[in-house]
Structures are given as C-alpha cells and as structure tokens.
Amino acid sequence: MSDVLTIQSHKGPYEVRFDEAALDNLDSSVPADAHFIIDDHVADLYAARMPRVLAHRSVLRIEAREENKSLDRFPAYVDHLVGKGIRRDQVLVAMGGGIIQDITCFLAATLLRGVDWVFYPTTLLAQADSCIGSKSSINSGAAKNILGTFTPPRRIELSTAFLDTLDERDVRSGVGEMLKVHAIDGPASFDAIAADYASLFTDRATMVRYIRRALEVKKAYIERDEFDRGPRNIFNYGHSFGHAIEAATDFAVPHGIAVTIGMDMANHLSARLGVGTEANAARMAPPLRANYRGYAGHPVPLDPFLAALSKDKKNVGSGTVTLILPDGEGRVFRDTYANDAAFAGLCRDYLEAGRGA
Ligand SMILES: NC(=O)c1ccc[n+]([C@@H]2O[C@H](COP(=O)([O-])OP(=O)(O)OC[C@H]3O[C@@H](n4cnc5c(N)ncnc54)[C@H](O)[C@@H]3O)[C@@H](O)[C@H]2O)c1
Ligand SMILES: [Zn+2]
After folding, report:
1. Mutate-to-test residue for ligand 1 from 66, 67, 102, highest number of ligand atoms within 8 A of CB
2. What's the rounded Cα separation, in Å, for the pair 305 and 247?
3. How many domains are contained in the chain?
4. What are the pocket residues of ligand 1 if the criterion is a CB atom closer than 6 Å to any ligand atom?
5. Which ligand is nearest to the CA of 256?
6. CA pair distance 255, 174, nearest whole angstrom
7. At what angle do helices 239-248 and 302-310 cross, to 10 degrees?
8. Whose CA is closest to atom 6 on ligand 1?
9. Taking the complete model, does pTM exceed 0.90, yes or no?
C-alpha cells in the first residue's frame, strides 16, 4: 500500500501517491490509452527499467531545456499527439521535472479543451513543490512563464528512487524550495529542516519526511487559495529576487538555488527596510548559504537584475515592487515598497558585497 496525500482542487480531489515502486508498477501495466511525455534524459537513464513504456505507441521525448517550454515549440507537440490520434477520454502521462510538468500541464489544459494528465515527478523540485498547486507556466519569446493555466493532474505518482540519478545542483535546487516552504510554515519549521539540512543529502528517510511535510504545508494554502489571489502569494518568498537573478545571469543559476539566494537577500533587505532584523537574517543564513554554496560569487549584473525585478508579475503599479519579506521573528508576509534609488542601492549593496559575506 502506498502512502497517499489528497489535495482538493476546483477540478475535484487528486492524490499524491508516495510509492517507491511507481515506475516498475507503470511498466508492468502500461495503460493503452496513454500518451507519454518524457524527459529525454530520464528516458535514457531509466530505459532498462521501463522497456514497455518506451515501446508504447505514443511516446514524446523532450529535452528539459527552457526553450522547449516556449510557445513556438507547441505546434510540434500538438502535431505529434494529433498524429497519435489523441482523444478527449485519453490521458497524458508526464515523466520529468518542472519543464516536462509545465509542457504537459499546458497541453492537458488546452488540447481538445482539456484532457486528463498524470504526473511522475523525477526532480526534487517537482516532487517537493511544483507537482501540486495546479499551475502551468510556459515561455513566449523572451517572456518567461508568461502564459499559463490552473490545471491539476488526476494523480501524482511520487517515487524518490528517481532522485538517485539527479545532479547535486538539482537536488540543492529542490532543497531551496523545501527551505522556502518550511520558512512559510513558520520559524519552528524552518529551524527543524535547517537542523537536518546535512541529513537531507545522506538519509533518504529524512528526505522523504521533509518532502511530505513540504507538500502538506503547501496543500493547506492551495486548498484555500488555488488561484493565487491572496494567501498563496507568500509562496513567492525568495522568488522576486530569485527570478531577477535567473534572468540577469541567463539562467546560469538553477531556479531553486536562485530562490535560495533570493530568500537570503529578502532577509537582509527586510532588516535594511526596517521590517525585519539582522538577527533574523543571521538565524536563517546557515542553511541558505550552505544551499547556494558555489554560486555565492556568481556575478549578478545590477542593471539587468533591476530591470527584471521591475517587470515582476506581482507588481501592481509602476514605481513599486511587491515583495515577500520576513518580520523580526522570521514570519513572512507580503507588502509593497517604493522601487526608487534607495531601494536600488540596497539591492546593489547585497549583490556586490553582502552575499555569503
Ligand atoms: N508549474 C509550476 O508550478 C512550476 C513551479 C516551479 C518551477 N517550474 C518550472 O520548472 C522548471 C524547473 O524544473 P526542475 O528544476 O524540476 O527541473 P527541469 O525539468 O528543468 O530538469 C532539470 C534537469 O534535471 C534532469 N533530470 C530530471 N529528472 C532527473 C532524474 N531523475 N535524474 C537525472 N536527471 C534528471 C533534466 O533532464 C534536466 O537536465 C522551470 O522551467 C520552472 O519555471 C514550474
Ligand atoms: Zn520556485
């Protein structure tokens, strides 16, 4: 019996099934009415474990690169699925990380006005965070994540066995999102995962426990605010700065690691803006710095960073930035701040001097 977490959504309930044998079970009874969309690298790595899946009549292998979740790639995906006779009562089965999730979720939302999809997340970021919450986000031209829908999968089959082959930087990218979710849950949760930070990388049971906890925390918010109109906004903690770091470095810094730097930056700026304290920034710094080690010295040019920050989706008017910052106790909340020369100076101070110092 697998362990199950049920999520309520506007399309009804859906389940996350924690099952280390998920891939073997799939390969031993491949659904005939499925259309597979699989990360090309995962298909290669796990070819011997899923011969029947890969021999299925409808398999679309896609390399997990940002360009491949761009709108101009979608006609080829649609042509493939139409060529394979996709019908409304059939199901898309996605296997991969956030990129494959975004592509499949967007296709599932729009093909034939909606088909079901099932997700086998293979990255830690997808397992501990993005697999629930319904969002798809795809790119158009230079605008990242500009198009999207809210379309939950029917089911998520979560096997941490996939993590065995993940690069360390991709593990740390997922851990960055886990630190974020625990910070949102409150200082005690953050301190708990901080104390177990090293064990996450060496002990699978510890990792599974914190993945499950991260999903439980997120579940409570998405069930209250699936469409991200209010309480769910705080999941963007670390993201305004993180997205700007990704954009300013041409995506050289992986998403969850940029978010980790973004949280550290939010903590320090919060103290400088007088809403938080240096003591809180210092309390939260050890696991954040450990998680972005190797990237602390990566140059983040200020002008592209500020330009990206000004374009953030969360901003409401011009001349302001909407940020999620911690208070003196480490509880995060959303507020709007003037995007002026003084604010740019605080960003410069952090990016040029403060990081990891
Ligand atoms: N829709 C959402 O809610 C949401 C949330 C967060 C991020 N995202 C998006 O997700 C993307 C990032 O996703 P991600 O970090 O999960 O990874 P990814 O899909 O970018 O994959 C990262 C790398 O890991 C490889 N990989 C995947 N599984 C593997 C495995 N088991 N073993 C070895 N290698 C494996 C991939 O081939 C790729 O090289 C971004 O495009 C981001 O915008 C979406
Ligand atoms: Zn994120």
Report:
1. 102
2. 7
3. 2
4. 39, 41-42, 45, 64, 66, 69, 96-102, 122-123, 125-126, 130, 133, 135-137, 145, 162, 165-166, 170, 173, 255
5. 2
6. 9
7. 130
8. 130
9. yes
Which residue in 129, 131, 134 sits closest to 114, CA to CA?
A: 134
CATH at residue 55: 3.40.50.1970
* Distance from residue 98's CA to the centre of ligand 1 (Å): 4
Question: Domain check: are 66 and 178 in the same one?
Answer: no
Q: Looking at the structure, do residues 188 and 55 belong to the same domain, yes or no?
A: no
Token code pair at residue 280: 């809180």
> What gap in Å lies between CA 284 and CA 212, rounded to an integer?
22
- Structural domain span for residue 34: 3-165
Least Cα distance to 184 among 259, 272, 271 occurs for 259
Tens place of pLDDT for every residue, the chain, 357 residues?
569 999 999 999 999 999 999 999 999 999 999 999 999 999 999 999 999 999 999 999 999 999 999 999 999 999 999 999 999 999 999 999 999 999 999 999 999 999 999 999 999 999 999 999 999 999 999 888 899 999 999 999 999 999 999 999 999 999 999 999 999 999 999 999 999 999 999 999 999 999 999 999 999 999 999 999 999 999 999 999 999 999 999 989 999 999 999 999 999 999 999 999 999 999 999 999 999 999 998 899 999 999 999 887 666 667 899 999 999 999 999 999 999 999 999 999 999 875 654
> Which of 61, 130, 151 for a ligand 1 pocket mutation test, highest count of atoms within 8 Å of Cβ?
130
CA-nearest residue for atom 42, ligand 1, is 98
How many Å apart are CA 65 and CA 98, to the nearest integer? 10
Q: Do 152 and 272 share a domain, yes or no?
A: no
Looking at 145, 165, 185, which one is the last position of a domain? 165
